[in-house]
Amino acid sequence: MNAAARIRREKVRIQAATMFEALETTAQIASELRVSEKSVREWRRRWAAGGAQALASSGPGGSDCKLSDDQLKQLAEVLDEGPVAQGWVDARWTLARVAEVTERCFGVSYTLRGVSYLLHRIGYSQQVPTRRAIERDPEAIASWHRRRWPSVRG
Q1: Counting beta carbons within 10 angstroms of the beta carbon of residue 39, is it exposed (0 to 12), middle (13 to 18) or buried (19 or more)?
Q2: Is this prediction's pTM over 0.90?
Q3: What are the residue ranges spanned by the domains of the chain?
Q4: Which uninterrupted H or E stretch holds 154?
Q5: What pLDDT sits at residue 129?
Q6: CA torsion, points 41, 46, 48, 52, in degrees to nearest 10?
Q7: 8 Å CB contact between 29 and 39
Q8: How is 15-71 classified by DSSP, letter by letter?
Q9: Tens of pLDDT along 26-54?
Q10: N or C terminus: which one in the chain shows less Cβ crowding within 10 Å?
Q11: In the 8-state DSSP scheme, what is residue 129?
């Protein structure tokens, strides 16, 4: 979750605190704030124990990244070069390959799930590439479409 979303959620919890003070019911609060009653009950328990401060955001979740900002940039550059540049025969990154590259380049090991989070953090998304031959010649394909396709199509 990004910082803006965390702030937005914290504001909702603080609104709930003012509603707790006004003695509104759990159902009313959940309906008005468009959240689950379970969340409201949890917030009410925290509010009763520590006031509105207990509903403040505790910051971003999860552990700190094992790679520095510079290393993340270097990793992105390595990924952009493609897996063939790193010694694999096909042009497809897998989580296991990225984990291996991360260990090889930076001496840092990640689980596959950790690699998935790492890639998401630096802006990559999961994509399944269309299978294309490495020998593919885009100019020859374009030429075929211009010259042959009209006669094939009829």
Answers
A1: middle
A2: no
A3: 3-55, 69-121
A4: none
A5: 61
A6: -110
A7: no
A8: HHHHHHHTT--HHHHHHHHT--HHHHHHHHHHHHHH-GGGGS-----SPPPSS-HHH
A9: 999 999 999 999 999 999 999 999 998 89
A10: C
A11: P
pLDDT digits (tens, 9 = 90+) for 98-132: 999 999 999 999 999 999 989 988 888 877 666 67
Cα angle for residues 59, 95, 114 (degrees, 5° grid): 25
**Is residue 76 a contact partner of residue 122, using CB atoms and an 8 Å limit?**
yes
The Cα–Cα gap between 28 and 101 comes to: 52
Segment 132-148, tens digit of pLDDT: 777 888 888 889 888 88
For tokens 């075929």, the residue is 144
> Chain centroid to CA 138: how far?
33
